[in-house]
Specification:
Order of helices and strands: EEEEHEEHEHHHEHEHEEHH
Strand order of the largest sheet: 7-8-9-4-10-11
Structural class: alpha/beta
Helix content: 25-40%
Oligomer: single chain
């Protein structure tokens, strides 16, 4: 079964395509890396797949549901860590998690139990009672991940989850995500510019360029004998000659 299946999915803004004729196939239980340069349409795609943005044309099925007719059923079964995070900064960390759980329909006691377990797993227990406004960027990223997981989603969307956080936090999050996929607890759809981390994580890859799918398959099929970074640069055509700055070049006049 496919967790995500799209047919010619397109979204235009003021007549200009942000995503065009996108056809994705994400197997259930996969760790799918959705890669592309800035402005390639990755975040727009996630918004469409989570029911936050209507496509201009095309179709999308998520977890067996057609988004055009059954978006609410999809939203109940997915978790999302958006690039902008969207946390309530005047709540404490534990309050943030409990509210997310309650809004997802969990009973008060179960919400409290899951919040405590997540805080421990994310190494945030000692900060549970502190306001989110006082959290570091990395702590906020981990808390947002906790909010996305607390209701037990079948499909998890992660939009740049490693941006701006240190290597220790990345390692902890990476191990948790790998364990979730290894236990077939969920399918994960990830966007990230940290290709070294992506290469260690994903089982499947899709590469987009200017809103269009340029490559898709298992990691081995897409990568071949090269590194993922080499394949990515070759696919999106972003490799350019580096020009030196004249005022920082020895022998050049200031």
């Amino acid at each position: 079964m496919l967790a995500i299946e799209t047919e010619a999915l397109t979204r235009r803004f003021d007549g200009r395509p942000a995503v065009e004729d996108l056809t994705l196939s994400v197997p259930e239980g996969a760790f799918y890396g959705f890669l592309g340069p800035n402005g390639a349409g990755k975040s727009t795609t996630i918004k469409m797949l989570t029911g936050l943005l209507a496509p201009t044309s095309g179709r999308a099925r998520v977890l067996g549901h057609d988004l055009a007719t059954d978006a609410l059923a999809v939203k109940r079964q997915v978790g999302v860590v958006p690039d902008g995070l969207g946390l309530f900064e005047r709540l404490s960390g534990v309050e943030q998690l409990r509210i997310h759980a309650r809004l997802s329909g969990l009973a008060r006691k179960e919400a409290a139990r899951r919040a405590e377990e997540l805080l421990a797993a994310l190494e945030l227990s000692e900060h549970a009672g502190k306001l989110v406004a006082s959290y570091s960027h990395g702590m906020k990223k981990k808390l947002a991940l906790g909010c996305a997981l607390i209701h037990g989603p079948r499909l998890l969307f992660l939009d740049e989850p490693f941006e701006g956080i240190d290597a220790v936090a990345v390692t902890g999050i990476r191990r948790m995500l790998q364990d979730l996929v290894a236990r077939r607890a969920m399918t994960i759809f990830l966007t990230s510019h940290v290709l070294e981390v992506v290469e260690r994580l994903v089982t499947h890859v899709g590469i987009v360029r200017q809103g269009r799918l340029a490559a898709q398959g298992t990691l081995e099929e897409v990568r071949g004998q090269a590194s993922l970074e080499d394949v990515f640069i070759r696919t999106v055509g972003e490799e350019r000659e580096q020009k030196a700055l004249s005022w920082l070049t020895p022998g050049e006049p200031a």
